[in-house]
Design goal:
The structure is a homotetramer. The first copy, chain A, is α+β, with helices and mostly antiparallel strands. Chain A contains three helices and five strands; from the N terminus they run E-H-H-E-E-E-E-H. The first copy, chain A, has a five-stranded antiparallel beta sheet with strand order 1-3-4-5-2. Chains in contact: A-B, A-C, A-D, B-C, B-D, C-D. At the A-D interface, helix 1 and strand 2 of A face helix 1 and strand 2 of D.
Chain lengths: ~140, ~140, ~140, ~140
């Protein structure tokens, strides 16, 4: 049994390149966000809905390792898992790789607080922890 | 007598370049926004304060002409004027040029609706039109 | 007979929102670029290949009208056509609308010069004008 | 004796906010880049010049801790130091805080490879390591 992982495919946009000819480093965090959005939808908790229920997941820590080049229009796969890290934090682990098998592009993680709509930290609601736990145990 | 114009200086960020080696085209609209922010502050109406008073200026139209290259770390000047365009629209005209006299980089304009905090169009408040009109008549 | 049009679907990223709660205005130009990339691929001329053949299409003019709100995670359709505008310019027309039928989000155009790899304007190569003309005449 | 630190002041742009009302998380890496640019200039090695001499510093690792909110138009200070990390890597440490004393916003670091213009890793040139070492020993 292994944890559920979501896979999103995207193409490097021209706007995401820089003059070095590959993607600009901060774009990895935007792709991690796309991966998170995709993961939460895949476990039945679209983040847009979570926010409209008054639960927000601001990033409190982020880490990226850059493993390979990716150029404009390259097709990439973003693979994401998530789980509770302690009682009040959520952690997402993300890998980005070339869709054509040319290897890894980046990997890293983000750690999230759970807050109410006003930004005040709160206990994660049960529906959130239960959905995350179920996904961890999925075959 | 000529209209008031504000001048902001900024440097091209590495994140603003693309693989063509100059700034990516959409960055011009971000610089126009920096120019607007600067202009409104210069006439005593910081936009952050306007929003906290419940007045928003969403962009309804934007136009950019690209006139010259600008590279990473080039110092640019952003020159902005603004005035009412009809009774319910605000128009900002912006020029971006090299600070060292190498010539123009971009010019264009944005047109803005005036809305309340919920996004509903509203009549521009008197303090806004009066401040804009005064700036037009400034020596 | 009508001109060929390409259709790309994308979702609004969290990174593309701003504090007004909709997409930040410059993102429209990034979506226009996604549409262009998609259009050129659809007529057999992937732009990444064009650049590797030494032909670049820098933006010289851009225009956007903002027609409706789009929020985080909304699915959008980007519809693009392109044609020569005079002998040395390419023009792309783009419409962005909600994929679920809620209506238009933005429309506009970009005008492009044709340059060689060094950025010097050049005559558009025949394979480019012919591919664009063929697409205009497609059923 | 303590290491040289550069300080850059910037304002949060509207384009850098997201619908949570503060800056979007990836912008921190763009501010780190502004800090690096500023640091390298402050020790006499403008990065634009380094690249034109054929030395590039691609990011191989990045880490950010988010410590406090910052809103549109808030004035921030970006404080940066840099040093060699082993023989072939450069490390930049960055802190971002409110200019008005309201406290920290983010801190973190980036690790950089040293490559030639083609992207091939190379030994850092002496003028680079010497300038970094001198700055470490500055009063």
């Amino acid at each position: 049994m292994s944890a559920h992982e979501s896979t999103l495919t995207l193409r490097v946009r021209y706007s995401e390149t820089d003059q070095m000819g590959t993607f600009y480093n901060s774009r990895a965090l935007e792709w991690f966000e796309c991966g998170r959005t995709d993961y939460l939808r895949s476990i039945g908790l679209p983040y847009a809905e979570m926010e409209s229920r008054g639960v927000m997941l601001p990033v409190v820590e982020a880490h990226v390792e850059y493993l390979g080049r990716a150029r404009y229009d390259d097709e990439l796969r973003v693979m994401t898992t998530a789980k509770m890290a302690g009682r009040v934090r959520l952690r997402c682990d993300v890998r980005v790789e070339h869709a054509d098998g040319r290897g890894p592009v980046a990997r890293g993680y983000t750690v999230h607080a759970v807050t109410d709509a006003s930004g005040t930290p709160c206990r994660p609601p049960d529906w959130l922890t239960e959905a995350l736990d179920s996904a961890q145990e999925s075959p």
